[in-house]
Design a protein that fits this description.
Layout (H helix, E strand, L loop, with lengths): L1 H26 L15 H14 L6 H27 L1 E2 L9 E2 L3 E2 H27 L3 H30 L6 H4 L4 E2 L1
Antiparallel strand pairs: 1-4, 2-3
């Protein structure tokens, strides 16, 4: 369980870096793409990676199963996180409603296909490196990292939630500056 928690944080930060680089390549401009106010994290990536590790590790040796499983698991995680952000906080982190074959604007076929490909690459190339790093940590370091990162995450999540609620209500909020890409649900 400690390993999964650590992977959540590793891939949340990795997702932030990936998302920020992706937007920079598309627009030529830096845009902070974190989903937390204080932490450089995109929670959807960490949650997606953790969900894949829990549900798809048995299929590591089959690119077809990883693609299909990743397509479904990552799309489901994205849909759930988007739905929670909309209902609990009143914000939309992303909107695919202008893309063909989408579900409520939260999931679309194009990105779901991309998640299938990313899932194969994740298990074949990315995760073995992270797995080796985490495997080399002793149990006490893992425990302390999990406790520290979890407490920091909960603190940041509380602050982020409060600011998103202000943003959704039309009040001045740190979200105005920190998340120029979100909009009210």
């Amino acid at each position: 369980m400690l390993d999964i928690i650590l992977y959540f944080f590793i891939y949340s930060v990795g997702g932030f870096l990936l998302e920020t680089a992706y937007i920079f390549i598309l627009t030529g401009k830096y845009q902070r793409r974190a989903t937390m106010l204080k932490s450089p994290m995109c929670v959807v990536y960490g949650a997606g990676a953790a969900a894949m590790l829990v549900s798809l590790s048995w299929a590591r040796d089959s690119a077809v199963l990883l693609f299909c499983g990743g397509f479904f698991v990552c799309s489901s995680v994205g849909d759930i996180i988007s739905l929670v952000a909309e209902t609990a906080c009143g914000v939309r982190w992303w909107d695919y409603s202008n893309m063909r074959v989408n579900l409520g604007g939260r999931v679309c076929a194009v990105y779901s296909l991309c998640w299938g490909v990313v899932s194969v690459l994740f298990f074949k190339f990315v995760h073995p490196f992270a797995e080796a790093v985490v495997a080399d940590m002793n149990i006490y370091l893992k425990m302390w990292l999990c406790v520290f990162l979890s407490l920091y995450f909960v603190r940041d999540a509380r602050i982020t939630y409060a600011e998103m609620k202000k943003f959704a209500a039309g009040e001045p909020s740190a979200c105005d500056r920190a998340f120029p890409f979100i909009k009210k649900a």
